[in-house]
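Methods — Computational structure assignment.
A single polypeptide chain was analysed. Its primary sequence is given first, followed by the predicted tertiary structure written as structure tokens.
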Amino acid sequence: MLVPICEKDFLGKRLLVTKLGGRRVGIIGLGSIGSRVSKRLEGFGCIISYLSRTKKSSIPYQYFSNIVDLASHNNILIVTCALTSETHHIVDKEVMSALGKEGVIINVGRGALIDEKEMVRCLIEGEIGGAGLDVFENEPFVPEELFEMDSVVLSAHRAAMSPEAVSDLLQVIVGNLEAFFANRPLLTPV
């Protein structure tokens, strides 16, 4: 049943709504996805910094080589990096603590990049301000606690299933196969 907004009791609830312009946003992984996210955030006037395996000389954003420093410098962390043995749980208790009570974590990478149990605990305890999650550590299972939190936005990880996205993916796959068999660099090396 749909309940009109005017019938809901929103008084006293902290909503996960804030002005995006001027916010400090740290991007973990400035590859293809992270770069596209950063370009969109520029349009909102965000102050962008990043963590990546290497500093990119052509990128004007502030570079951090340490994730805890990146977290302590920003209001929002966006996780876009690849999942490897080095990045598994890259966002852990220490990172969340550095991000702080008003900090928001957005994960569009892989679920296991975040220590999900610790994130749920930090959200419950008010140690971080919120989360936007498109991926989960043990998909398709989502921690039940997240469904009840006003400070969390959940997505079904289906953005890649649009006809346009599938077409783009097929073009990349074909391009990578052609490059591989021609002994040229891949379009999207990981």
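Note: The domain at 18-157 is CATH 3.40.50.720 (Rossmann fold).
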